[in-house]
Amino acid sequence: MSRKLQPGRLVAATHNKGKVSELKDLFEPLGFQVVSADELALDEPEETEFTFEGNALLKARAAAQATGAPALSDDSGLEVSALGGMPGVHTALWAGEPRDFYIAMEKVERELVAIGATNRSANFVSCLAVAWPDGEEITFRGEVHGHLTWPPRGEMGFGYDPVFVPEGHEVTFAELKPEQKHSMSHRAVAFEKLKAALL
After folding, report:
1. How many C-beta neighbours within 10 Å does residue 26 have?
2. How far apart are CA 74 and CA 169, in angstroms?
3. Domain coordinates of the chain in residue numbers?
4. HEC string of 9-37?
5. Which residues are catalytic?
6. What is the pLDDT of residues 84-109, one digit of tens each?
7. Which entry of 1, 162, 186, 191 is 20 to 30 Å from 72 by CA?
8. Could you say which of 3.90.950.10, 3.30.530.20, 2.60.120.260, 1.20.1260.10 is the CATH number of the domain covering 9-198?
């Protein structure tokens, strides 16, 4: 793709404060001013797609059209091997309303115990989508593999981070310092691909 993402205002098409914080950490050192959909009081579109890419594009497209500025969206989730890839694109839904990821983590654990799963492998997926107001758009996918642990450990992450131990480590994402997580997370992998293509 020959089009580049120019430093300046970038709309983060999310109301998730954890995601906004990570996106700011990734983009602001490169000269972007990241403004969230929440700060702009944008509606959150219903996630009706069946893939991470589809949902990420849906959110980025809506924000770009509403603001007239380039928009970035992340759709991410946890895929648990023994559960056939669930919760997957339904990752946030497992946390209920209002979002409570301790409920979601307990649900995953209950499901694994119920089927007597010995395989606790899982991976986090992140799909970053960039949409421009003129309709051009592109996606980048990142994955990080690991396994689930119980009970949850750590205070520094968000979502399912307290139960996810990345490959090659003995601590959960929520026990890693933010800069450590940013260097290896699924979002960081997708970001490196985005950076190579657009920046």
Report:
1. 22
2. 25
3. 9-198
4. EEEECCCCHHHHHHHHHHHHHHCCEEEEC
5. 75
6. 999 999 999 999 988 899 999 999 99
7. 162
8. 3.90.950.10
